[in-house]
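Job type: complex structure
Entries:
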Amino acid sequence: MSKSNILVVNDDGITAPGIQSLIEVVAEIGTAYVMAPDKPQSGQGHAITIHNPITVKKVDHYEGIEAYECSGTPVDCVKIARDVFFPDVPFDLCVSGINHGSNAAINILYSGTMSAAMEASLAGIPSIGFSLLDVSYKADFTASRHYAAKLISFALGHQFNNSKLLNVNIPNLPISEIKGIKVCTQGKSGWSEEFIESKDPRGNSYYWMAGEFLRHEESPDSDINALGNGYVSVVPSMHDLTAYPAIDELKDINLLT
Amino acid sequence: MSKSNILVVNDDGITAPGIQSLIEVVAEIGTAYVMAPDKPQSGQGHAITIHNPITVKKVDHYEGIEAYECSGTPVDCVKIARDVFFPDVPFDLCVSGINHGSNAAINILYSGTMSAAMEASLAGIPSIGFSLLDVSYKADFTASRHYAAKLISFALGHQFNNSKLLNVNIPNLPISEIKGIKVCTQGKSGWSEEFIESKDPRGNSYYWMAGEFLRHEESPDSDINALGNGYVSVVPSMHDLTAYPAIDELKDINLLT
């Protein structure tokens, strides 16, 4: 059996410890092809670079692995990897991360990690985004590596019919304290923003986004609850944003002239 | 009855003809409060500005209307409008656009126009993104204004239970040729990217994203088909990306240790 071809991307940049861990996990399972931003790109969501050129440089950070750094967004990385740098590789899987920080609940919308994985899934490639609930550079990825290996092997051995995109979050706990994995729904919890106002050297105001993650009331099936209870959360996700139950509710719109 | 309070945002920038048209429509229905990017921000998706400060300047482009330009992304505009500039305004509605170009089908993911509207809907404000299928600066917004007025009035008079976010696209046709409005599902059609490679003055390669919109096989209920048949499309949308049918399909994941 030939080795699986796995595209590795992230949003924290090519030198982040999270992607180093993920590349090592992938290299033990299949062939890793890496295209990652040349700088941190957190919070980029599904942004793409239309009005400017982007550059790509081959790097030798990971021995024996074909890896590139790209000046664009995480979604740009997926697009240019497929179109220019690995056009002939039939990818079996795309993995993104391991993100330094949670992408549970509403974070999926803002996350470059998850948008990169979604971009690959739009092209029909089953994709998994991994995030550890620890934003620090020195985060301990031991448990994340363990569960990433399990889930990548699972994904390579299964057909994905109803979702080609998994949002995986790992609690910041030692393996011995993690209770297992749970398939979940996307939580409702989100951010309450606050902007800190200050003055630039010329006395003009500027604003810097702060914010607090507010835990809303959550279903027992939500990723937020699973993580709070010590489980790795897996939310099967999709890119069809249609609110189907609203179609009937809004049918009077069809009568407007 | 007091006038409705309507937040107006976009992604093409505060001076774009599309937002000028939308502000004029809104001013006839309620009180417009404007916070728009100070430059074009197409393709920014749900990007937010975390690692840099942003600036906001009051502008007098629109007589009698409180309007600001912001250096951030479309989503930043919604956040800072609510937190800093209009914290005491109880918004009845947020409208975004009118975008110069389609946000039908998969475009909703990349669209700053739709992400701004989604951000407001996350805060519980019913929101509508409007887009005209003409990217030109001199696009004719006559039909768009007509249908925007109809849909804004409809939205202000209805409860939105199953969706607080409408993705409205208007075909590039004179009013007389538009057949009406259709509530639709999100189409599957999307982009096939191609990057054009060239050399910078120092002989290094750079890449610039091009791309072709590929029409996939679409359901008769899709926005793509409605637009192709001369209708204004309205897709009720949501931010819960959970692929519910996949939860049962993936239940074996819960057994992984």
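Summary: Chain B touches chain A through 83 residues (CB under 8 Å). Chain B is about 25% helix and 25% strand.
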